[in-house]
Specification:
It is a single chain. It contains 16 helices and 7 strands. The protein has 2 domains: 141 residues, Beta-Lactamase, CATH 3.30.450; 180 residues, Hypothetical protein af1432, CATH 1.10.3210. The C terminus is likely disordered. The strands form 2 sheets. The chain has a 5-stranded antiparallel beta sheet with strand order 4-3-7-6-5. A two-stranded antiparallel sheet has the order 1-2. Helix 7 packs across helix 13, helix 8 crosses helix 13 and helix 14 runs antiparallel to helix 15. By secondary structure, the chain is of the alpha+beta class.
Length: 432
């Protein structure tokens, strides 16, 4: 390669590289922001749905195939809804049969009548329907004077039971909008900061290389390699933007600020024992660094809660693996990492989430990430507990082998720990 050609590459890199990075960041920012908004609203809807269904289910009776509402149940539900109305948590609530007959309503004039509501058929089929309501033509919006989030949810007896009724809940949209705005701001700060850093790095690299080129031609071969690597690096720098986003998510919880890096380090140790090739290693690195990116849509109050989560709160947190996968699938070169992020909370015995995969149905890299994630979590301080000792964490991993975790992966993890210098000394070796 000639000196002139090298200079052409430099000029192209200096002039095209930064704008491309910035344009990519803007596009990624809009895409990820839209995904984050969807994740936040969906998370809020799941919490509302669980609460609405949980209030209604104990109050329902079924006889001769028809759902009815006991007088005692009506009184208990009315009391609970009244308390939530007074606290500003609920603006309106209906409980209906699947044919639209109103069993209970905050508007008592509706009880016993058949009404038409959007999402009734969908909820009767077992799915949640979510919508924002802001039109002043809506009577409830006109009365309360602000936008609402409407959630129509199926009500079952037990988790897998038939749909007995449908609950329609209206909640103020303002707190949800504030959470959306906060999460989107984090996205843009992370993406913008990462993009700016990347653009400056590319520009500086080009300028430095230009000076080196003018100083001496004896280093031409190595310089050309650096230049071509810099051009290829533009794509990988997009990963740096997402890493910055992941760091921003972790930074919301100072207890787990290094969780992504810790999980990645442990996963690398397992990968070395299992003999992963370079391609597998790259996919695992990206998935490990970004495995909790879906937590961008979880309220900070849940991430920092100093006590165990309620069932409703845990259901909301469980949604982060699917949410993370939806965010990553918008980035073409992260396609291979997307299923790893989606399935990193699946269990070997099939009792995990989000889909209940079991055994070798779970991708191998997801099984590796699951073990690494759990081990780092156990040995890290959390708002609700102190970290386990290495010996206790190792014992817990052994107990989970063949049940929660792939036994082969656990064995690789333990073998990698034997090689870690200074990690609890002889005590660690004996525990392993």
């Amino acid at each position: 390669m000639s000196v002139n050609h090298s200079r052409e590459i430099l000029a192209r890199l200096a002039s095209v590289g930064p704008p491309v990075i910035l344009l990519t960041a803007v596009v990624a920012g809009f895409i990820i922001s839209a995904q984050v908004r969807s994740v936040v609203i969906e998370g809020a809807a799941q919490t509302i749905s669980a609460g609405a269904s949980g209030l209604a289910a104990p109050c329902l009776d079924i006889a001769d195939g028809e759902t009815s509402f006991s007088a005692q149940g009506c009184e208990a539900l009315a009391s609970a809804i009244t308390q939530r109305q007074q606290a500003g948590q609920v603006q309106g609530y209906r409980l209906l049969r699947t044919d639209g007959t109103v069993l209970f309503s905050t508007d008592q004039a509706e009880i016993g009548h058949v009404v038409e509501i959007d999402g009734l058929e969908k909820a009767a089929g077992g799915e949640i329907d979510v919508a924002t309501v802001g039109s002043e033509s809506d009577p409830l919006v006109a009365r309360v004077g602000h936008r609402l989030l409407r959630v129509v949810t199926p009500v079952r007896k037990g988790e897998a039971g038939a749909v007995l009724a449908v609950a329609e809940s209206y909640k103020p949209y303002a707190p949800i909008a504030a959470s959306v705005a906060e999460s989107v701001l984090i996205v843009w700060l992370a993406v913008g900061g990462g993009a700016l850093t990347t653009a400056v790095t590319i520009g500086y690299t080009a300028q430095r290389a230009s000076r080196d080129l003018e100083e001496t031609e004896t280093r031409l071969d190595s310089l050309n390699t650096r230049l071509e690597d810099s051009l290829v690096e533009i794509e990988s720098q997009s990963l740096g933007v997402l890493q910055a986003l992941s760091a921003a998510v972790d930074a919301r919880d100072h207890y787990t600020a290094r969780h992504a890096l810790g999980t990645t380090e442990i996963a690398f140790g397992i990968a070395a024992q299992l003999g992963f090739d370079e391609a597998q290693h790259t996919i695992l690195e990206r998935a490990a660094l970004l495995h909790d990116i879906g937590k961008i849509g979880i309220p900070e109050a849940l991430l920092l809660k100093p006590a165990a989560l309620t069932d409703e709160e845990f259901e909301q947190v469980k949604g982060h693996s699917e949410a993370g996968a939806r965010i990553l699938q918008t980035i073409p070169f992260l396609a291979d990492a997307t299923p790893i992020v989606r399935y990193h909370h699946e269990r070997w015995d099939g009792r995990g989430y989000p889909t209940g995969l079991a055994g070798e149905e779970i991708p191998l890299l997801a099984r590796v990430l699951a073990a690494a994630d759990a081990f780092d979590a156990m040995t890290s301080e959390r708002p609700y507990r102190r970290p386990m000792s290495l010996a206790d964490a190792i014992a817990e991993m052994k107990r989970g082998a063949g049940a929660q975790f792939d036994a082969t992966v656990v064995a690789a993890l333990l073998e990698s720990l034997r090689g870690r210098e200074g990690a609890d000394g002889a005590g660690l070796t004996s525990a392993v």
